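Quick start: what a row looks like.
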Amino acid sequence: MKVINRNALKYIAIVAMLIDHIAWAFVPTGSVLGQVMHFIGRLTGPTMAYMLYEGYIHTKNVKKYAIRLGVFALFSWIPYSLFETGAWYYPQFGVIFTLFLALLVLCMWDKTDLPKAVKVILVVLACILSVLGDWPIFDILWPLFLFIHRDNYKKQWLSFYIIIAVEVAFTTLTAFMGGNPFRSIFQFGAFMVPPILMYLYNGESGSRNAFHKWFFYIFYPLHLLILWALKTYVF
């Protein structure tokens, strides 16, 4: 029975993100607990990528959507910097920055009459730029392939499996070369997303209360600041 609507899906991603960030802040990655928490955290990026795609096809005003993502990507920069390094400046942004780029890519692919070769080049450039954000490349490519194959459900999921398999293979190889092949086992948690979306998500929006729309944008920088403060001044 499909019981999860879009709002519930958003909160599942938020809880998974919180668990993931708590683990990065306080739990050794190589521990069993760390692997379990990060495994759950792998729900976040793919789910947000899917929600961005749905946000794009359902929004009444793409321009406002893009401005909102861009503003909060900048607003979250200092909290993300503090969480990651303890310093006020860090030359990397959080996941909202990557989602902002993904939305621009969707707009470019959908709304412009550029030659396909030029579009592909711009997508590659966006993927390179996304390295400055969290969940790079994946959160650019999957929303794009969801849109390109929006009339072919099987191709949508095939693209997901190919992209995430490449990412998992890369991180596993990196961990193996670093002498700790089990450190990246948690990456396989991303494969939890397809069953949730296919068998539990009903495609409905849920309540249209503005609280659901703005909660993530406020929660994201706020929880990073709280975790940084706890890590720095309490534990």
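That is the whole record. Residues 53 and 143 are 5 Å apart (CA to CA). Residues 6-233 form one domain.
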